[in-house]
Write a structure and sequence with these properties.
With about 180 residues, the chain is an alpha/beta fold. The chain is built from 3 helices and 11 strands; from the N terminus they run E-H-E-H-E-H-E-E-E-E-E-E-E-E. The chain has one domain: Metallo-dependent phosphatases (Purple Acid Phosphatase, chain A, domain 2), CATH 3.60.21. Helices cover about 15% and strands about 30% of the residues. The strands form 2 sheets. It has a 6-stranded mixed beta sheet with strand order 3-2-1-9-10-11, covered by helices on one side. Helix 1 packs parallel to helix 2. GO terms for molecular function: hydrolase activity.
Length: about 180
């Protein structure tokens, strides 16, 4: 199973086009969207190329392969434009290894406030806009960073899970961080 992770699109058409181009060429089985899909939110500036209806149209073309969770900037109004469910606060994915991925945005559950997890499980979240791929205690923390508003001097990035390795990759192909699952 090969998964592609994107977080914090915030309605940017330019960022969405870029991430979908990379997703389509990646050979990944699913696009996992970790919230804050259409709305920029009151604490963020309006992104360049802010176009939520067009972002929704582009994402809807991939609805059969999207797994999405709700971010703190997402609402029922956003769901009306999207043809895939995205209002759940979390989702689980079971890997062939038996490890569980806990998918969430990061505003309710995160590195510091974890749900009940087993040793070796992976909490996958966005929200902070900062890439992370590392063991912290008994779990792996994975954050693909942000496509639209990267923070702390990081580059815009996305994540990939393949061959038992989590990677955060910038759009120029640089691996920003990675972690083996084993």
């Amino acid at each position: 199973m090969k998964l592609f992770f994107a977080a914090d699109l915030h309605g940017s058409l330019e960022a969405t086009i870029k991430v979908l181009e990379v997703y389509k060429s990646s050979g990944c089985d699913h696009l996992v969207i970790l919230g804050d899909v259409l709305n920029h939110g009151p604490r963020n500036p309006v992104p360049e190329s802010y176009a939520p209806p067009q972002v929704a149209d582009l994402l809807n073309e991939h609805k059969a392969s999207i797994i999405a969770v709700r971010g703190n900037c997402d609402s029922e109004v956003d769901q009306m434009l999207l043809e895939f469910p995205m209002m759940s606060d979390y989702a689980w994915v079971i890997l062939p290894t038996g490890q569980r991925l806990f998918l969430t945005h990061g505003h309710l559950y995160n590195t510091d406030k974890r749900p009940p997890l087993n040793k070796g499980d992976i909490i996958v979240h966005g929200h902070t806009h900062i890439p992370v791929a590392e063991w912290q205690g008994e779990q792996i923390i994975f954050n693909p960073g942000s496509i639209t508003f990267p923070r702390n001097g990081h580059k815009a990035s996305y994540g990939v899970l393949q061959q038992n390795r989590l990677q955060v990759i910038s759009f120029d192909g640089e691996v920003l961080c990675q972690q083996e699952l084993g």
